[in-house]
What we know:
The complex is a heterodimer. Chain A contains eight helices and eight strands. By secondary structure, chain A is of the alpha/beta class.
Amino acid sequence: MSKLLNKELQDQIREFLNMMKDKVTFVYFKSDKNCDTCEQTKMLLEEIADLSEKISFIEKDLNKDTEEAKKYGITLAPSFVILDNEGKYKGVKFNGIPAGHEINSFLSAVIDMSGVEFGFDKDLVERIKKIKKPVNIKVFVTLSCPHCPGAVSNAHRLAMLNDNIESEMIEAQTFQELSVKYKVSGVPKIIINEKHELVGNQPIEEYLNKLERL
Amino acid sequence: MFTFNMEKPKASSLFDEVILWDMIVIGGGPAGLNGALYAKRKGLMVGIVTLEIGGQLHNTSTVDNYLGFKNIEGKDLSDEFFEHIKTLEVPILTGIRTQEIKKNNDIFEVKLSDGKTLNTKTILLATGGAPRKLNVPGEVEFSNKGVSYCTTCDAPFFKDKHVIVAGGGNSAAEAVLDLVPWASKITVVHRSVWRADTILLEKLKAVDKLDIHLNSQILEIFGDDLMKGIKYLDKSENIEKILEADGLFIEIGTIPNSYLLKDLVELNERDEVIVDEFQMTSEKGIFAAGDVTNQEEKQIIISAAEGAKAALAITKYLNKFYKGE
Lengths: 214, 325
């Protein structure tokens, strides 16, 4: 079977991944039922993992490996989380294949999770660390949306800096039922703790303003 | 299938090191990127601060009128621009909003949303525009619940649905073409007559599922959880009509992102920054280029050209005031 990433793209991504500091692990959940994009998602993750020695790939089954699924709060397939150097879950999750424009938020999360500094201002990091309430951020995207990767990366960075925050990308077309449930007909759409909404690619401060008022 | 365009973050950022910049570009669209390109080539210490690279190019699917590119996706053109800038190693901060510009003696302080403050001798404001709103009841309520301003982002939500496109310029015509692969029916509702290029209108003639209501002014957007339709005034018959639809793409032009300068420089009645033939604003040292200015035609190639003009004028300005040439 031919690869998803052509040679040119592989080279670009390999060079980009050279920046990684420490190791990361992808834990991917498939399902044998009604999962049109599982195979492709797995291929993408494996192909990316092959481009750096610092990336490991683990495959799980949503319906069989229920203990692990529960540990990472996985309820959909395809879904995956990115774990840090110590195998710790920092709340960084992707539901649906991060293809199209979303390859950027995916690879950015890989670099970030490997311990490369984000370059955030000290005061900003302090503010993020002070969030005490549990926060779940859902960022709905389409793969053709150029504004979406920025919104996903910001949410994931918040999660990486604070254990109370969990962030998940949701590919709106793969998970149409969720899109309907959250009334998504425009992206990026950001749902915080099930009820607060942000629309559009927001700078990290806008997220923070919202989180501080929860 | 993949649009990879990440830049490599540097361990230490010039933005933490440079004490005084020659020129800070605010905005990462065609005007800002070309301004930075010209300034960098002139040897200026120049940096770009922007929320996103590409600006409004991201909201455009196809660009057919940029010389040298017969037919290119807006995003791809943005990537071409960005690749070019990267070869010159212009420092860029993305994901950042500029919050305030203050003048302190002859130096400008640019306060950023990440808490940093940059000091610079000159500013090129290239913040472009944001989608203009209809300002009718229901528009805010149904925003992202049927009402959208970005066809490339949101067209997939309207598979087999009826969508309305508001507007009569090139972006409205392009929006129709973007929606063709998805929507089952498309209706253009525009308050006056077409302003779009003839070449685009010819393309629309081939779209079977397209209805066009000209001289029709949208009065209200209604719905419950999601948008259900619009009420509009058919001006030729002077009758209010109802049109049921699942979506409404508003493509009626832009409003200038000039709020940063509103207390610093002169704006016109449309809130556009007034510039002279050198792209200089009413405030010495602040220049502007692209859709944020009072330049009449909002076009990619014109914005890019204005960026270049501004950078060259800034170079001369710096030589005059800082080197006494």
